[in-house]
Amino acid sequence: MANGEKPTEKEHFIPRMYLRGFSEVKESGKALIWQFNLKTMQQTPVQVDVHNICFEKNLYEIKGRDGSFIAQNTIERTFGKIEDNTNRVIQAVRAKSENENCLNCPTVLSEDDKSYLIILITSLLYRDPATIESGIGFLQESNPNMDDREARNLTLLNLLPLGLDTEWDKNTIIRTAVGNLTGMAYQIGIADEDIIITSDRPVVIWSPKEDEQHNRPRAVAFPLTSRLLLYMFPEESVDPIARNCFVKLSEDQINDLYVNTAVSARNWIYSRNQLTTEQQGIIREARKRLDRTEHAPENR
């Protein structure tokens, strides 16, 4: 690495900067978060440091034939740039939400802000270990003689941005998928307390309508912080006066977020505070319904 910089081995598929928005930040600077385990249906007894969750060792590294890394941390650094830009947007939205003079602003997000959020949201859909493993399995199923190293390298090259070649990055799945989220109207929901939750697969997507030419979702929900929730809708489905603004979240909307987060998550739900008995009950019931149907509900 340049300038003696030590390579990063813990590569987070859910960014630490994102999880901090749902954590309790201590004087030491540590950001601690509560976990709910969807396999045991139990909340873990203590908070955990966001640095120690949602990562895999060398998750995004491309390997040569001798097993050494090629351009180590290149993908990790590219994600870091995306996260830095998006973090500035989230912090600006948080500041506006806490300023009464900004609550009725006609425009909460600039076009650049929207672009950064879309890129982060899209990357979260594809950069997790399960999606990468699915890509590897698909390649090997189509090419039985392809070994694990080659299949993994090709999956990473086609799935994620390298940050080295602009033309190549435009053809990665993340970049092409960004187009499906363009032309969307935005709302930022505000909760009165720190009750917005997130998960190890935090983007909730309602599938496109059958006649949707642009393959755009009917809606997207993406928790921004423990008090802020981003909604995205096709522009034609939202009255102009209700676009790009703050809205107060109702109890029904918050409960709906709990249900859909429970359905979308893989193994873990994260929250700033311990989940109440009622909140845990909503999550358990949602997962039971998912297990009974053996597939995601229609609004996935």
Explain what the structure shows:
The chain is α+β, with helices and mostly antiparallel strands and 300 residues long. The chain has one domain (2-112, 183-293). Helices cover 38% and strands 18% of the residues. The chain contains 9 helices and 15 strands. It has helices at 16-20, 74-97, 111-126, 129-142, 148-159, 166-170, 173-178, 251-264, 277-293, and strands spanning 10-12, 24-25, 31-37, 42-43, 48-49, 55-57, 62-63, 69-70, 184-190, 198-199, 204-206, 219-223, 228-234, 245-248, 268-271. The strands form 4 sheets. Strands 2, 3, 4, 5, 10 and 15 form a 6-stranded antiparallel sheet that branches. Strand 2 (24-25) and strand 3 form a beta hairpin.
Helix content: 25-40%
Mean pLDDT: 89
Spans where pLDDT lies below 50 across 5 or more residues: 296-300
The whole-angstrom Rg is: 20 Å
What is the β-strand count?
15
Structural class: alpha+beta
DSSP helix count?
A: 9
> Can you tell me the overall shape?
globular
Main sheet makeup:
6 strands, antiparallel
Q: How many distinct domains?
A: 1
How much strand content do the residues show?
15-25%
- Written as H for each helix and E for each strand, in order along the chain, the element string is EHEEEEEEEHHHHHHEEEEEEHEH
Distance between the termini: 42 Å
Quick summary:
The chain is of the alpha+beta class and 300 residues long. The protein has nine helices and 15 strands. It has helices at residues 16-20, 74-97, 111-126, 129-142, 148-159, 166-170, 173-178, 251-264, 277-293; strands spanning 10-12, 24-25, 31-37, 42-43, 48-49, 55-57, 62-63, 69-70, 184-190, 198-199, 204-206, 219-223, 228-234, 245-248, 268-271.
